[in-house]
Automatic annotation (TrEMBL), chain A:
<keyword id="KW-1133">Transmembrane helix</keyword>
<feature type="domain" description="ABC transmembrane type-1">
    <location>
        <begin position="95"/>
        <end position="304"/>
    </location>
</feature>
<dbReference type="InterPro" id="IPR035906">
    <property type="entry name" value="MetI-like_sf"/>
</dbReference>
<keyword id="KW-1003">Cell membrane</keyword>
<comment type="similarity">
    <text>Belongs to the binding-protein-dependent transport system permease family.</text>
</comment>
<feature type="transmembrane region" description="Helical">
    <location>
        <begin position="134"/>
        <end position="157"/>
    </location>
</feature>
<dbReference type="Pfam" id="PF00528">
    <property type="entry name" value="BPD_transp_1"/>
</dbReference>
<feature type="transmembrane region" description="Helical">
    <location>
        <begin position="177"/>
        <end position="197"/>
    </location>
</feature>
<feature type="transmembrane region" description="Helical">
    <location>
        <begin position="9"/>
        <end position="30"/>
    </location>
</feature>
From TrEMBL, chain B:
<dbReference type="InterPro" id="IPR000914">
    <property type="entry name" value="SBP_5_dom"/>
</dbReference>
<comment type="similarity">
    <text>Belongs to the bacterial solute-binding protein 5 family.</text>
</comment>
<protein>
    <submittedName>
        <fullName>ABC transporter substrate-binding protein</fullName>
    </submittedName>
</protein>
<keyword id="KW-0732">Signal</keyword>
<dbReference type="Pfam" id="PF00496">
    <property type="entry name" value="SBP_bac_5"/>
</dbReference>
<feature type="signal peptide">
    <location>
        <begin position="1"/>
        <end position="20"/>
    </location>
</feature>
<dbReference type="InterPro" id="IPR039424">
    <property type="entry name" value="SBP_5"/>
</dbReference>
<feature type="domain" description="Solute-binding protein family 5">
    <location>
        <begin position="70"/>
        <end position="423"/>
    </location>
</feature>
<dbReference type="InterPro" id="IPR030678">
    <property type="entry name" value="Peptide/Ni-bd"/>
</dbReference>
Amino acid sequence: MFAYIVRRVLATIPVMAIVALFVFSLLYIAPGDPAAVIAGDQATPADVERIRASLGLDRPFLIRFGEWVWNILNGDMGVSIFTNLPVTTMIKQRIEPTLSLMILTLCLAITIAVPMGVIAAWKQGTWIDRAVMGFAVLGFSVPVFVVGYVLAYIFALELDWLPVQGYTAFSQGFFPWLENLILPSIALGGVYIALIARITRATMLEVLQQDYIRTARAKGAGQTNILFLHALKNAAVPIVTVIGIGIALLIGGAVVTESVFAIPGLGRLTVDAILRRDYPVIQGVVLLFSFIYVLVNLLIDLLYTLFDPRIRY
Amino acid sequence: MQRRSLMQAGFAAAALPAPAFSQGAAARTLRVIPQANLTSLDPVWTTAVVTRNHAFLTYDQLCAQDAKGEIQPQMAEGWVTEPDGLAVTFTLRPGLRFHDGEPVLARDCVASIKRWARRDPFMQVLSAQVAEVEALDDRRFRFRLKKPVPLLLLALGQTQFPCFIMPERIARTDAFQQIREPIGSGPFRFLSDEWNPGQRSVWAKFDGYVPREGAVDGLAGGRVPRLDRVEWTVITDPATAASAMTTGEQDYWEYPLHDLLPLLRRNRQVVVEQRLLDGTYGICRFNTLHPPFDNPAIRRAVAMAVDQRDYLRAVAGNEAGGWEACEGVFTCGTPLANEAGSEVLKTHDIDKAKAALAAAGYNGEKVVLVAPGDYPQINALSLVTADVLRRLGMNLEVVSTDWGTLIQRRASKETVEKGGWSIIHTTSSGQSLSLPVFHLFLRANGPQAWFGWPEDAEIERLRAAWTETGDAAESRRIAEALNRRAMEVMAYVPLGFYWQPSAWRRNVTGVFKSPVTAFWNMGKT
């Protein structure tokens, strides 16, 4: 197992290298010029050129890429073209809201979606099953921002129960933190809940047909035991896989959710950086997201062994 | 049930931490939704409006414009011009200090002026006549001039690209490099450790600030800080920003979206008013390098089809007083505003424009109009022009992109087949169109001109003549000649102007009319 983990961690290195090359190349060929953004309308072309030179943007691709890779290997993600702040500082400022949002959404989604899927499978063909599947279709179909606006309208504007926007750091208290994140998490969690509920239902339906479930029933095991102890554990591998894949959904959804609820997270940092062509920030954040995604998938692979002892690495 | 009571009931057992501020402190903090994200702190390095607004909080000016546009002393106690006009000596007010506690000295002003002069287009025009700027002692510095420069004070006190004073050690930074320390001598201190670009920027009252005596008057007069803190929170989504204003989570919204103004006006706790003194002007710019718009007659034909009202409704709606047509090149309501030769802009007739287009020899050349989808106002202007061009029967391709891509593409001098462009739109503050010296779109010096690169010796001659005249009547005459010639050259079509109101909670006091969003003199009850 240890050797497997080491192999997998080492395998992330070429993946990250490819991502780095891809991101850097994409930004190099993409249209847009930070020097023009900085210089503004009043600047002459010569001014823009001088700013571009001062930022080192006039140097050849390979030199810039080589320097960037060398700095990354030395733990330096560069400095934002606009703010003059190190990219690592900007990421540190923004990572807590995004992680908070994602973790809360994840907890919320798993807590709601797995029981929903299990119950839908158990009550297959009944109104409960149809209601769960109806919700799943709704969750997939309604965009995150629409859910966000509706929630904000009802719970913030009409009922005045929760704030419309913003983020309070965890260090300032659990409840103020939670108060700001409830609505964004529900909005972001909708599609995720739908995804997990559907896959849980489908997998549970398959497992519930297995002989060992019939045996458990014959032995007089209780319904709850059958569903959550025997069936769910055996259905866990595809569910955990979907949860892992869904992290990408969360990352994408966080960008929209953070904009709707004005949460100062990495999603908004990415969008702002893209709009301004702040290359070091874009590169840093995309690399970080890729790393998180690779790491989550490694974690998921390791979790397989917990749920299915037949899987060995 | 209210939010607070729900939370209290739900979490009664939990020991909630103390709030970050007492109620009194909250009452002395102004929570602002700025027009954009503050990403750069150097007002010389970038011309972004949001950076300029930050600079008005953090830095001070030697002189500043009052509500009538006249230049008044600010940090300067006053100035003396020698009888021959070849030297102007400024004296600083006593007791001025930077936020690091150091006194403001004449040499700080000299270094700041020199750095700013390298980037400000207005001062660059005047610099040819400046022999030297030198500190005479701690409180006095002097401009030595090669010949009298009547516009010197206007350049130093302008609002478009203001000359802010920094400590000499910071102002020595190259004008094309960004400064690292935002230390000024303005009424508020920038709190760097609380700066989270894209989310929050915070200023605290500078206790060592010595305001000028007298009531606030535009950007002149006493810049008295009446708030302990000013906090900017970036809310990119306009609907969320409107909700935050409605619930009282924010106190001041600099640029509310026009579509949301009726919603805000319905809330009794929110005031929506025109605070900014200048309107925002729409500009439709032609690329004069390539067909079909290398032909002035075709440019004029398009202008004949333009009705500014269509554009302004598209941006600012039908609200009374929300916009006004302005069919000349200079800012309406300013001394140089005129409509000499503007008949072509008053045609407003598609059929006549079609006939003019045919007479001009339009042969179906492709027209590429680049529109920024992420910039609602400029996108709206672009779409109206697209409609006009279609109705004229022009061979149009609309390229919808983001602003970042547009500002790079507009620098391309290639043909449209090779990634160039034919028409772009932008907006400009009324300030920057009020005088020929900083009227960007009036420049016609070919490769050095603003994107579109028109070339016209007569416009350049008139502009140079204007900078040298000190006589009001002559200045006006030149402005009329400029307008007339601009309508013949038609390097751009003026699209009129719309007002950008601001919104604030009713308990915000001391809001004053000004050409920029400034926060001194303001308080909360």
